[in-house]
Amino acid sequence: MRNYFLLDSKVTARADAALNNEMVKKLWGSFSLSCSALEFTEGQPFTFVVGKIALPTLEADKEYALCVEENGAAVVGKDYGGLMRGFASLVMKMEFDGEVCKIKTVTEQSSYNMKNRMLHICVFPDNTLYEIKKIIRLAGLCQYTHIIIEFWGTLQYDCMKELAWPNHSFTKDEARELIREARELGMEPIPMFNQLGHATASRVCHGKHVVLEQNPRLQPLFTPDGWAWNIHSSKVYELMKQVRTELYELFGEGEYMHIGCDEAYYYTHCEEERASLPDFLKRLTDDVVSEGRRPMIWMDMLLERKKYPNCTATCVPEEVEILQGALNPATVMVDWQYRIKEAPVPTLLSLKDSGHDAMGAPWYEPGNYSAYVDTIVDNDMFGIMMTTWHTLKEKMESILGCAKKCGTVTFPWSNGRNREETAAMLRRISFEGNDYESSGWTRKDIVDHFMK
Fold first, then answer.
1. Class of 116-429 in CATH
2. Strand pairing class (47-51; 72-77)
3. Strand order through the sheet with 37-42
4. pLDDT tens digits for range 180-219
């Protein structure tokens, strides 16, 4: 038996009209090594069919079903996102034998172990637009459901020009390219703007401040150290509202708004100032909900200090219930703890009965993201938000590693070597072509090691 579906140089798909986009066509062409081009005629919603094959049956709890026979290939999704994740799995099954591109016969149902699989990425002044596009495309191949995009002084806002570094930031039209690609890949893009700590839009270890370096007279918007926003300022409230409004318009329809609120050191070390945090958090989260979004918030400022070994938490015991109780009930609690490498993660587990949806946010260490996935699955929690921060260029394979731990299926030849597999994925999604500096995940072969 042949056991393969052979691809012609031109293939016509009967598919959901939304699937007829440039991203899908480029993925097909790239993974087929330009041996096959994809054309479309309109088919049934949330389906993709090439050749002569019946649609596979989609089970109620699955995101997609996939089938390849000698005469064709088909994918059914529960929605557009599920369809795209099935399509991603399909193209990764393509093989080239030196003469023809083909796909081995197979039947497959999605096997994700949680519904919400999110990736958080930072856009730094050092990033190029192409680098961020490749990260978003990689996230799509890894079948994340959402991608949180946080611009670190790199988005040009209308409400305050000093929120972006001149000559090191993106226009809204450029940002829309990123958002469009995320949606075409079946992910919901989530806007993020940190509305308490990290007000410098730069890492604290480098001492930069996107606003005050350009206009020191704006100091009243911040705490005296400049690191956090001044929660007593009415101008800050208005500015935050304007920023959110611009982000909603830019990102389009969506369910969430990540408001950050972590590592506000000035408030952490001042009891008098901390007394104002409950009112601030209530007003902020209520405002976001009134705007039609669910706020997402980092939890380090709302967890009891010293209670959890090896965890980051800053609350004194008597403040925990007050601060957590101030959050609007729709708020999603996001727990990040990067030193924990065994399940269950105690801080995340403490949020299980909080009345809020709670999700874990690990970093690049396999032990760390494995502990979070196991805790989430064992306790049927809301989902995961993989974080990347400044180590992304050195640890990009963690995006794939965490996705696999969540049940993502990738290349049939996958052997657990996430770094090499990530490199193979990047080659397939580099549609624009890569020279020495734009290929892989670093611009040079010899670079300073990421900061530990």
1. alpha beta
2. antiparallel
3. 37-42, 10-15, 47-51, 72-77, 64-69, 106-109
4. 999 999 999 999 999 999 999 999 999 999 999 999 999 9
